[in-house]
Design goal:
The chain has nine helices and two strands. The chain is globular, with a radius of gyration of 21 Å. The chain has a two-stranded antiparallel sheet with strand order 1-2. It has two domains: 74 residues, no CATH class; 83 residues, 2-Layer Sandwich (Alpha-Beta Plaits).
Length: 197
């Protein structure tokens, strides 16, 4: 059974300030936990509490608004991705042939294609380049852009780069982890682990 799509609610202007405050708060918390030598249990508990709050935000605000509020307001990675997206050579482009039908607005869950954004022919600052709008546009007026590439090639390159970067960062994260049993350097020698900080 198809799910009924409704027009996403615009997010309040103050959410940008909140997203920066959350990013700074998460970074400060991580540094303080590290500075005070918090145990893995305490750090995991703080992270778990942050995650539970994010799930609550998803359930009680994002679903109601029809927008990925938790991603564009609460998640520090979402905030960084949006900020770095402004300097990315990849772009989502809205062609002058756009009929202003609003199909892209219904597809966008990141509050980046409101009426004003579509009329301006440029996605808003919260665009994550997810591409949901590209497939929804009936007139093919929305497409990925990258210097010298056709739109389909630009989209393929973007997806390949994102997947590759995710895999690389996950690999790096695993290399920086101590022994899975939580050993310190001396214990790593006894349990045979070689990948410690």
């Amino acid at each position: 059974m198809a799910q009924r799509r409704f027009r996403p609610s615009p997010l309040p202007e103050w959410r940008r300030s909140v997203s920066i405050a959350v990013l700074l708060g998460v970074a400060a918390t991580a540094l303080l936990l590290r500075f005070f030598g918090a145990s893995a249990v305490i750090a995991a508990s703080v992270a778990g509490l942050f995650g539970v709050c994010g799930i609550g935000l998803m359930v009680f605000w994002s679903r109601k608004a029809g927008v990925m509020t938790h991603c564009v307001t609460y998640c520090p990675i979402g905030v960084l991705a949006t900020a770095f997206g402004r300097v990315s050579p990849f772009r989502i482009s809205i062609a002058p042939s756009c009929t202003d039908c609003g199909a892209c607005t219904l597809a966008c869950r990141y509050d980046a294609l409101g009426k004003a954004d579509v009329l301006r022919r440029q996605p808003g600052a919260s665009c994550t380049l997810c591409g949901d709008c590209v497939g929804r546009c009936k007139g093919s007026s929305i497409e990925y852009r990258f210097a010298g590439l056709k739109p389909d090639a630009a989209r393929g390159l973007f997806i390949t780069l994102v997947v590759s970067l995710h895999a690389a960062f996950l690999g790096v994260a695993r290399l920086s982890e101590p022994c899975s049993a939580g050993c310190d350097r001396e214990d790593n020698k006894r349990c045979g682990a070689t990948n410690f900080r």
